[in-house]
Amino acid sequence: MKTKKEKVQIFIDGGNFFHLALKKLEIDENDFLFDKFAEFLANGRDIANLGKRYYVGTVREKEGDQRSKERMSKQTKLLTTLKEAGWEIKTSKLRIRNEKIVIDSRVNNYKEIIKKGITEVEYTKMREKGIDVKLATDLIIASFDNRFDTAIVVSSDTDLVPAMDVVKYRMKKKVEYVGFSIPYQDKNGNEDSTKPQPTMIRHSDIQRGLVESDLKKFVKTQEKLI
Hints:
Layout: E1 7-13, H1 14-22, H2 34-42, E2 46-58, H3 66-84, E3 88-102, H4 110-115, E4 120-128, H5 131-144, E5 150-154, H6 161-170, E6 174-180, H7 198-202, E7 206-210, H8 212-216
Parallel strand pairs: 1-2, 1-5, 2-3, 5-6, 6-7
Antiparallel strand pairs: 3-4
Helix pairs in contact: 5-6
C-alpha cells in the first residue's frame, strides 16, 4: 500500500524574515527565489493547495518622499511576482509611530552626547499592525480544516505561540519553526546578530536554524548554482 506523503503549509512573516535575515545579509527581496526556498523548506514533502503564504505590511507612498515611492514600487514588484507563482498574500498597513530614545548609560558614548546638549532623540518608525493576528488566524483555521500535517512557520514573533499551541495540542498537528543564526554588527560596531528564538523552539515540534549559506543559494545571482 502506498504511504501517504506528509503535507506542509508554509507561513512566512515577510517583515520578520526581511529584518532578521535578508537585510542583514544585504539580500534584496526581489532577488530572492521564494519558490525555490519553499521547496527547500518542504524538503520532499508535499506543499498543500494554497500552502505558500506570505504576510507583510504594505508600504505607503508619502507625497514628496522619493524613498517611499521607491520602496512601494519594489514591494509591488515582489508581491506581483509571488502572486504569479501561486503565493497567497496577506497584507496590513504599516503605521507611522513616533518613538523616543533617552540618552543615558545604555547608549554608547552617552556622556559625550549629553555634553553637546542632547538628552533625547525622537524618530519616526514604521510598524506593522495586525500581521501576527492574520498569520495566527490562518494557522489555526488551516489546522481545523485539515489542510496540513505540518505547519512551517518562518517567523520569530513570539505572539504566534498561542496559535502554535492550538495547532499542536488541540489539533494534533506538527509545527516546524524556522529561525536564523546570522552574525551581524551595525555600522557603529554594535552587535545585532540574529539568533533562533528560544520561546519558538520550546513551542514547536521541529526546529531549523538557517545560516547565511542556506539563504545565499536562493539569491538570483546564484541561481545557476542551485
